Amino acid sequence: MDSASKYAYDLVENALKDPSRRPIVRSFFDPQTYSVSHVVRDPESNVCAIIDSVLDFDAASGRTSDNSLRPVIDYVNSESLEVDWLLETHAHADHLSAAPLLQGEVGGKLAIGHEIVRVQDVFGKIFNAGTEFQRDGSQFDQLFNDGDRFKIGALDATVLHVPGHTPACLAYVIGDAIFPGDTLFMPDYGTARCDFPGGDARQLYRSIRRIMELPNEARMYLCHDYKAPRRDHYAWETTVGAQRTGNIHVRDGVSEDDFFKMRSERDETLPMPKLLLPSVQVNMRAGQLPPPEDNGVRYLKIPLNVL
């Protein structure tokens, strides 16, 4: 176990022994994008972080709205919470980030993994974003590297770099709670796809095994659920132990070669996410919409025959 993983393991173990180190988590599900946002609270204060916020986008009309975001903001305000961090697990390809709106209303420092610069470089070229689009991550307040540590009030937290779905994916370990982004879904649904630019099924397998080194009792909060067959409800909370014993794609005993074969064959059958082009175009800018053109209107580009 590497030093960053060992620190994360000890962080979880200590929190399991001490309730004051265990965050209070309130989750908000968006049925339009099957996304889950999490408000993570320090139990000893009113300080919190918000993970993976969602901005509504209607592709047919090109209109955005904050309908999905309002319950999050209302919760923060009703509980008199102080938002310290706005955390992104990666540059999502299935929904737009609402981080700028959140910052304007409740504050917080916006953070993502340092490898977002790779995503910006690749998609900056795909969207022909021009020289005005900085590809250095400067749109974010904080770029995290593997093993970096931070605080949410008195809560100890750290980040693990878990590439594979995208190059920039992070898992946040906060007390005894893990937020792995798209690396893992509920055990009965499996794992994330790896066929976007920069994706790598073998990397994803190794990233998941790294997460599964953490204590079995660790709570795991996912950022999507698509409701597996034969399950009649949406779910987004599980444990490391449940993933190790029951994940249909990557439970204990599944080899890297078997996972690579399954994931590669499965990805070839999947359609592109409906909001891929608007989502990445906005999320590579930290949730900011593209700058207005000379008529004052903002535009999203649709590159033809590229992806």
Chain-wise SSE layout:
Layout: H1 3-17, E1 24-30, E2 35-41, E3 47-51, E4 56-58, E5 63-65, H2 70-78, E6 82-87, H3 99-106, E7 109-113, H4 116-126, E8 142-144, E9 149-152, E10 155-161, E11 170-174, E12 177-179, H5 201-211, E13 219-221, E14 237-239, H6 240-246, H7 256-267, H8 276-283
Parallel strand pairs: 3-6, 6-7, 7-8, 12-13
Antiparallel strand pairs: 1-2, 2-3, 4-5, 9-10, 10-11, 11-12, 13-14
Helix pairs in contact: 5-7
Given helix and strand content, the structural type is alpha/beta
Q: How would a crystallographer describe the biggest sheet?
A: 6 strands, mixed
Could you tell me the strand content as a percent range?
Answer: 15-25%
Give the H and E element order.
Answer: HEEEEEHEHEHEEEEEHEEHHH
Q: Choose one word for the global shape.
A: globular
Looking at CATH, the homologous superfamily is Ribonuclease Z/Hydroxyacylglutathione hydrolase-like
Describe the overall structure:
This protein is of the alpha/beta class and 307 residues long. It has one domain: Ribonuclease Z/Hydroxyacylglutathione hydrolase-like (Metallo-beta-lactamase, Chain A), CATH 3.60.15.10. 26% of the residues lie in helices and 21% in strands. It has 8 helices and 14 strands. A 6-stranded mixed beta sheet has the order 1-2-3-6-7-8, covered by helices on one side. The protein has a 6-stranded mixed beta sheet with strand order 9-10-11-12-13-14. Strands 4-5 form a two-stranded antiparallel sheet. α5 (201-211) crosses α7. The longest helix is centred in the N-terminal third of the chain and has 15 residues, at 3-17. The chain is globular. The chain starts with a helix and ends in a 24-residue tail after the last helix.
